[in-house]
């Protein structure tokens, strides 16, 4: 199925990856050096050491599925073995023994395979991913946004089963507990200091590029009431064409040689946000083609990349299949929908909240002890995002019925609640049980979680003025 150009590019890629792998290995001192893996001889000699064979043989009894997946993978074809990914230095926080390494003091293993390990052989993907919001999400959540949920609004088990399963857990101390492991969230904090997890998208042990290109891959996290990109995609014409025709498409083409029309007829998430199409190179920084930060409450343009250059890149994706007028008009329509959301809904709602806080009619703890605070949150976080993302990605049902329609309906409720607060002279704070748990450091979290203590006594009574 791979065309001649694809084949040539693929061979070039493999050579480049192998060279990177060899370089990574040659930088390593075999046993006690600074880097944990010693793949060089293996790759060059194309043979396996006894030790490497032992891993495969024993584990094919322990986890036959994993070894079978590995056998089908590009890694097995290139003689990248279990040890290349799972070897640890004795001094690593996560170093451990398994039955196969007991009694071999020079060999330690770890179940954690961080992006830094992958990046030794895939440096470009590693660097791009590290720059992305995917890898940086822990810092974004805790330092930039100071997300109130992480400041004591919910507890450890709620975070472990929810937030951190998508965003990534903290395993930086190398101790794997029921709360933090297993976890393949995009921004996991790893013991070696690297961030994220490549297997958020490239499931082990197949590392199949075809799987990564399909929308179901992204949909595991990009779904639900607050970022329903998956639902939007599958309701869009692009998604419908994918569903109808994907069996006839070629998802295996080499990177940068996956060609619209020849290999696929409608774009997937990866095609628009990551793949190398036309003059665009593949990118592992999913922010590179965005003009807006539509996840935020207010109207903000891309903070990580030049917004206009990013927009040009996205339009370049579209014109692989559409005319420039079609593409540019559609994207300009999205900009107008952003303005509509910002001017007509977010600005007045925010002004109302600012006023209630300034008059001390609501408790100072910024959110979620009073009903109006939930309604305000959902205005921007749920229906406000749905309206914007439906407009961005050809999902009219989300732009209107789950989006602007709901914004109008809840804006109505919001105004009534605000009037009631003003009439009563106070809100009705309620302490929701189950908050707390291990929170951010006091410096990052002030005034939480101590702030919750007084609320406990405020069940349904006026806030202190
Ligand atoms: C290309 C790198 C790579 C290679 C090669 C590789 N693994 Fe893994 N393995 C991973 C990653 C990534 C994970 C998931 C860990 C994580 O999220 O950090 C994993 C997880 C595992 C787990 C625990 C996961 C579970 O579902 O229980 C076992 C066991 C394992 N690997 C065994 C093996 C064996 C045996 C081989 C050789 C046949 C092998 N691995 C080869 C990258 C690799
Ligand atoms: C004699 C059989 C045997 C051999 C040889 C062997 N292993 Fe294991 N390995 C196991 C068993 C059994 C476990 C599960 C141990 C446990 O968790 O109690 C395990 C656990 C692991 C885990 C951790 C899985 C987890 O989720 O904690 C990794 C990674 C791993 N082995 C990699 C390797 C590598 C790499 C080699 C080659 C150096 C190797 N194993 C050789 C039997 C073996
Ligand atoms: C020791 C070097 C080495 C390590 C470590 C390694 N890889 Fe690879 N990887 C390779 C080689 C060599 C290939 C085959 C080259 C090719 O097909 O482009 C490959 C291929 C791939 C492919 C398929 C590319 C394609 O074009 O089909 C993916 C995806 C991938 N690796 C992801 C990972 C991830 C994720 C990790 C870490 C969990 C990892 N690799 C760790 C060397 C490595
Ligand atoms: C189902 C997976 C999933 C869960 C569960 C989840 N998130 Fe998210 N979160 C996402 C995705 C996907 C985005 C990106 C939305 C976008 O850009 O449109 C996101 C965006 C965010 C952002 C905005 C980041 C920015 O750059 O502005 C924050 C903060 C956040 N989430 C925090 C949390 C917290 C805290 C929780 C738990 C209370 C949580 N998330 C639960 C997937 C999830
Ligand atoms: C957000 C999902 C996602 C994450 C996270 C991710 N990848 Fe990928 N990766 C993809 C997609 C999609 C492709 C296919 C791009 C295309 O169409 O050519 C890909 C392609 C690749 C390839 C093939 C060569 C190329 O660059 O196209 C390699 C190698 C690879 N990824 C390695 C990694 C490594 C290493 C990491 C972690 C540092 C990683 N990926 C993290 C989605 C992801
Ligand atoms: C394991 C969960 C997970 C998977 C899988 C995942 N994402 Fe994300 N994605 C997130 C989270 C969490 C964020 C929000 C990060 C932040 O802003 O803090 C995000 C943010 C984004 C953003 C916004 C980036 C920005 O700079 O504003 C885009 C675009 C995106 N993802 C696209 C994709 C695509 C395309 C795929 C599949 C190829 C994918 N994601 C797979 C969890 C995931
Ligand atoms: C036809 C191309 C296309 C497809 C297919 C597509 N997107 Fe998008 N996506 C866009 C455009 C255009 C935007 C708005 C970009 C901007 O800010 O100018 C966008 C915005 C986003 C955002 C919001 C980023 C932000 O501002 O916070 C996320 C997240 C995202 N897409 C993820 C996905 C996921 C996941 C899928 C698949 C389920 C997908 N996209 C499918 C074109 C596409
Ligand atoms: C791989 C090719 C391909 C790419 C890339 C692509 N599209 Fe499409 N798009 C299609 C096809 C095919 C259709 C169906 C055309 C038809 O019915 O005539 C379509 C339909 C549409 C529609 C009509 C939706 C409807 O509900 O009627 C819009 C709008 C659209 N695309 C916008 C875009 C935008 C904007 C981009 C870039 C962000 C883009 N497309 C990228 C192939 C593509």
Q: What structural keywords apply?
A:
single chain, 465 residues, mainly alpha, two-stranded antiparallel ribbon, 22 helices, 2 strands, 1% strand, globular, disordered N terminus, disordered C terminus, binds heme C
- Uncertain segments are 1-12, 25-45, 456-465
Overall form: globular
Please give the share of residues in helix: 40-55%
Mean pLDDT equals 87
Alpha-beta classification: mainly alpha
Side-by-side strand order of the widest sheet: 1-2
What hetero molecules are bound to the protein chains? heme C
Measured by DSSP, the beta-strand proportion falls in: under 5%
* First-last Cα distance: 72 Å
Can you count the beta strands? Answer: 2
What is the rounded Rg?
25 Å
Helix-strand string: HHHHHHEEHHHHHHHHHHHHHHHH
Number of helices: 22
Q: Biggest β-sheet: count, sense, barrel?
A: 2 strands, antiparallel
